[in-house]
């Protein structure tokens, strides 16, 4: 996940839910219990779903000037 986002030039913040109780609480609040989960604004992508991630990246670039 990190490699894909880095390669595509997408800034990101990674959270370790094993070490960060707040991040774990956010994961649970979003209705997930497994990782990875990637959040692009109001879009949440579960797992390493490369087509969904690439679509989100393209939308981010179009809307945020990325």
Describe the structure in brief.
The chain is an alpha+beta fold and 66 residues long. Helices cover 45% and strands 12% of the residues.
Write the layout of secondary structure elements.
Layout: H1 2-7, H2 21-29, E1 37-40, E2 43-46, H3 50-64
Antiparallel strand pairs: 1-2
Task: Give the amount of beta strand, in percent.
Answer: 5-15%
Give the topology string: H per helix, E per strand: HHEEH
Q: What's the domain count? A: 1
The low-confidence parts are none
CATH-derived architecture: 3-Layer(aba) Sandwich
Class by alpha and beta content: alpha+beta
Query: What Rg do the Cα atoms give?
Result: 12 Å
The CATH topology assignment is: Glutaredoxin
Residues in helices, as a percent range: 40-55%
Biggest β-sheet: strands ordered side by side in the sheet: 1-2
Question: Could you explain the architecture of this structure?
Answer:
The protein has 66 residues and is of the alpha+beta class. The chain has one domain (2-64): Glutaredoxin (3-Layer(aba) Sandwich), CATH 3.40.30. It contains 3 helices and 2 strands. The protein has helices spanning 2-7, 21-29, 50-64, and strands at residues 37-40, 43-46. Strands 1-2 form a two-stranded antiparallel ribbon. A hairpin with a 2-residue loop joins strand 1 and strand 2. The relative contact order is 0.16.
């Amino acid at each position: 996940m990190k490699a894909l986002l880095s390669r595509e030039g997408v800034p990101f913040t990674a959270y370790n839910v094993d070490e960060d109780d707040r991040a774990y609480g956010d994961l649970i609040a979003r209705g997930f219990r497994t990782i990875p989960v990637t959040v692009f604004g109001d879009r949440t992508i579960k797992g390493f779903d490369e087509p969904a991630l690439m679509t989100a990246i393209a939308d981010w670039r179009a809307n945020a000037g990325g």
